[in-house]
Recover the amino acids of this structure.
């Protein structure tokens, strides 16, 4: 049996995802941008905050709504994250 050679093994994959080019499920259905779920790390990177800031705010009772993705992983719906950020803006109507 011939050995399979793959030059790309071990290289990090680069996701072609962007707001203009969201991932498409096999069914062809596209999730609206504001309903997409991002990981805790992605949320922190997008907001320019530490990964612990939303955690601390949630414990204090004023953090963004989060989704339990698995036993040890949480994520945020973009809509909820952006509405939380808007509420954090100084001078925003409560």
């Amino acid at each position: 049996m011939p050995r399979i050679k793959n030059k790309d093994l071990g290289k990090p994959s680069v996701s072609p995802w962007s707001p203009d080019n969201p991932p498409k499920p096999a069914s062809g259905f596209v999730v609206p941008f504001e309903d997409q779920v991002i990981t805790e790390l992605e949320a922190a990177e997008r907001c320019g905050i530490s990964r612990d800031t939303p955690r601390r705010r949630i414990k204090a009772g004023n953090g963004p709504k989060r989704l339990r993705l698995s036993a040890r992983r949480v994520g945020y719906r973009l809509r909820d994250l952006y509405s939380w950020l808007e509420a954090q803006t100084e001078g925003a109507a409560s």
Q: What stands out?
A: The chain has a mean pLDDT of 76. The chain has three helices and three strands. The CA atoms of residues 51 and 73 lie 13 Å apart. The helical segments are 40-47, 52-60, 78-88.
